[in-house]
Write a structure and sequence with these properties.
heterodimer, A: mainly alpha, 22 helices, 2% strand, B: alpha+beta, seven-stranded antiparallel sheet, six-stranded antiparallel sheet, 4 helices
Chain lengths: 512, 236
């Protein structure tokens, strides 16, 4: 299965996806080239995409070099991407091949993602057949396959985050400290690949600290160790930014000239009501293709549509339903459970809540009302989005359901839980936290720019494995049969094939 | 039957079915590779048109093709080149008349005719110039001239103009327009690369199905063996 994904990604990388048709591919390549040619880590503001590369994109000889905003990213991915370029240069490869060579890194990362997701499913007790089926489904999302065929750090980030989440889940289930260390290690690499990972790093680390066992002195030591390990690479990058720019989170946006002189005065609700931002996040997660290659320097993209979009939207909806269903099941189970479990004794807040809710019925009712109130808010908020195209409701309801699961996780975490129940509750809560932060960021850009920007589904890759964890546990506890999952996996595999043959390849060839 | 053989046969069947299904679903895309060099993507087409092609109307458009053949190894100089032009027939009005279209590509010149009755509304109309090859079109600036030989205002057709004038502005009866004709160079040839992609994707799809089926069969077989074992008292 992993090998088949790798073959698929390599075929796309070398024979189908045109050069520069992966988001920001020019910038990613230029960064890796700087490292391969020994120019060191490029500095934002000084780094450029050289004129030869720009000329290759625009097909206009003598095109001037442009500023490389991708230099805002930490270098971990680019060290890997520089290796094939260096080998290619050493072997005297032609320029066209050199441009494509770093795509191998994303293809390997994509195959790695499928492998790690399979391992997560096995860890959660799905067994071989069901684990194969769910990992295959994840590997059939056209957007993931597409990005795995290009020079981009997103799939490598996906891999590091999936590995971190594997370690995190293993620690919560088995209590082995080595798993927590593995989680922190991969989080460090994720943070050293893209700073977005910090939004995942903080809550994951917090849950690790909460879940630590033993005397408090040891727990403090372990917490410090995990924090130092996970924060090592991102801290170095933040320090570098501070040295050069006097601002640890300095990015290309700080150099960007916003379109509006006076920022818009609109609420988040107005933003959701007036722009299809939420739908774009979901649709782009499923598949968005093209960048500057097909348009010869002009931004030209194709968003997945028609039957494949509906099929993959149904998958998102199914995931949302499973997560909410599982959270309701857990709430019901924990209401029936008597006494406090070990975990509740470890966390004072939870201990107080559990003993109070055992004594007073109204506290139990309040916790339910809290979860249900937040869930209703999620639906009201999300369903204000524009209702075009017709299938948009599938994706909007899916988002609302995922946020609902996050809202329900709060009262669930304050009750008696087993390790896997807590795992899902944490996963849903962190997913909701992450997506709301991302949404707040793009809303901020909208106010400054007056137009919808940066609604890329790939921004959700760091937390996608968390959704996967939740869905796997739900599949296990709802005892969904292997045959059904196999059928679903084959259906999705077919519609991925259909997307590439019916939409993506014709887009590349017709719109030359 | 041996499990591996059973899986291999099923994988083969899935592969054949996938190829068949997709060939039926996408016959045009798989038969021909339509490489277009549109003056502008359809999304950017403005709302202007040239006006009805009545007798004596003369429209000219100069254009060159910004296509680097070295980056498109699937193309050959001897490939036949055809031009597509976005025309309109005024909401499926029955029209009659005809125009001569002359294409000058360097030293090569060829002409063809547009029969107004055959033009569909807002659909690119294919113009074939038998003598023109890809190398001729790529050689430099080309000139397309439309001369309406026959056509009345209430029964003629028109052409759309795009606001993207990167290829140059069109001229209608000697008057320069703020737009250019929506032209595409159609390089129609066997879509070998697309057919190969079909086989590769169908192979991967069949392979995945095979892996999943194999795991399922094996798990079912293990279950069966275990149950038989219990019956015989082996696992007690």
């Amino acid at each position: 299965m992993v090998l088949l994904f790798f073959i698929k990604a390599m075929w796309l990388a070398f024979f189908v996806t045109p050069l520069w048709d992966i988001t920001d591919e020019t910038g990613h390549y230029a960064y890796a080239l700087d490292l391969a040619e020994g120019r060191g880590i490029p500095l934002l503001g000084e780094a450029v995409v050289d004129s030869n590369l720009v000329a290759h994109v625009t097909r206009e000889p003598g095109a001037p070099a442009v500023v490389n905003g991708i230099a805002q990213h930490p270098p971990v991915y680019y060290f890997f991407a520089a290796i094939p370029i260096k080998i290619g240069q050493w072997a005297g490869a032609e320029q066209e091949l050199l441009y494509r060579l770093p795509r191998i890194v994303a293809a390997i990362s994509g195959a790695g993602v499928v492998w790690v997701l399979y391992q997560i499913a096995m860890l959660l007790g799905l067994g071989t057949v069901r684990s194969l089926a769910v990992a295959t489904m994840a590997g059939c999302i056209p957007g993931v396959t597409h990005l795995a065929s290009g020079t981009s750090h997103d799939v490598t980030l996906f891999l590091f985050c999936a590995l971190a989440i594997h370690g995190w889940a293993r620690f919560i289930l088995t209590r082995r400290f080595s798993a927590a260390v593995a989680c922190a290690f991969w989080l460090a690499l994720a943070g050293g690949t893209k700073l977005t990972a910090l939004v995942l790093l903080a809550p994951l680390l917090a849950t690790l600290v909460v879940e630590l066992e033993g005397p408090w002195r040891i727990r403090v030591k372990q917490s410090v160790l995990l924090g130092m390990l996970a924060g090592s690479l991102p801290s170095l990058w933040l320090l570098r930014n501070w040295i050069y720019f006097r601002h640890p989170f300095y990015s290309s946006l700080d150099q960007y000239r916003w379109l509006l002189d006076v920022p818009l005065n609109q609420s988040m609700q107005d933003y959701i009501r007036q722009t299809p931002a939420l739908d774009h996040f979901a649709t782009n997660f499923i598949g968005v293709f093209g960048w500057l290659g097909t348009g010869c320097g002009r931004f030209y993209v194709w968003m997945i549509r028609d039957t494949p979009l509906i099929v993959f939207s149904c998958l998102l909806l199914l995931m949302g339903l499973l997560l909410v269903g599982y959270m309701v099941l857990v709430m019901r189970r924990s209401a029936l459970r008597k006494g406090t479990n070990e975990w509740n004794r470890l966390v004072p807040l939870s201990m107080i809540f559990s003993s109070l809710s055992a004594k007073y019925r109204f506290i139990r009712v309040l916790s339910w009302l809290f979860g249900i109130g937040l869930s209703l808010w999620a639906f009201v908020f999300v369903l204000q989005s524009p209702s075009h195209p017709e299938s948009v409701w599938l994706r909007l309801v899916a988002i609302a359901l995922m946020w609902t699961a996050g809202a329900l996780a709060v009262p669930v975490l304050l009750r008696n839980n087993t390790a896997s129940e807590r795992l899902v509750a944490y996963a849903c809560l962190i997913f909701t936290f992450f997506t709301l932060i991302v949404l707040r960021e793009v809303y901020g850009m909208y106010l400054l720019d007056g137009r919808m920007r940066a609604t890329w589904g790939r921004y959700l890759y760091p937390v996608a494995p968390l959704l996967f964890v939740g869905v796997c546990v739900a599949v296990r506890d709802f005892k969904i049969r292997a045959g059904i999952l196999l059928l679903l996996a084959v259906l999705l595999a077919y519609f991925e094939l259909d997307t590439f043959l019916g939409q993506v390849i014709p887009f590349y060839t017709n719109a030359l | 039957m041996n499990l591996n053989i059973k899986t291999a046969i099923l994988t083969g069947v899935v592969f054949a079915l996938a190829v068949l299904l997709l060939s039926l679903r996408y016959p045009t895309q798989l038969r021909h590779l339509h490489l277009q060099t549109a003056a502008s993507p359809p999304e950017l087409i403005g709302i202007r048109e040239t006006g009805p092609w009545v007798t004596g109307t003369r429209i000219t458009q100069e254009f060159s093709i910004p296509l680097d053949l070295s980056t498109r190894p699937v193309l050959r100089d001897t490939d036949p080149a055809r031009i597509e032009m976005l025309l309109a027939n005024y909401e499926d009005r029955p029209n009659h008349g005809r125009s001569k279209v002359v294409l000058e590509c360097g030293a090569q010149t060829d002409e063809t005719w547009i029969d107004y009755a055959s033009v569909q509304d807002n659909i690119p109309h294919l113009l074939s110039f038998e003598k023109i090859k890809l190398a001729d079109v790529m050689a430099g600036t080309n000139r397309l001239t439309i001369i309406a030989e026959e056509g009345a205002p209430d029964s003629s057709i028109t052409a759309w103009l795009t606001t993207d004038v990167a290829l140059g502005k069109a001229s209608v009866n000697g008057k320069i327009q703020e737009g250019s004709l929506v032209l595409s160079l159609m390089l129609e040839r066997e879509a070998r690369s697309q057919v190969v992609s079909l086989y590769v994707f169908a192979f991967i799809f069949a392979g995945l199905t095979g892996v999943l089926l194999h795991a399922w069969f094996r798990s079912a077989e293990l279950d069966r063996t275990q149950k038989q074992g219990y019956k015989r008292g082996r696992f007690r």
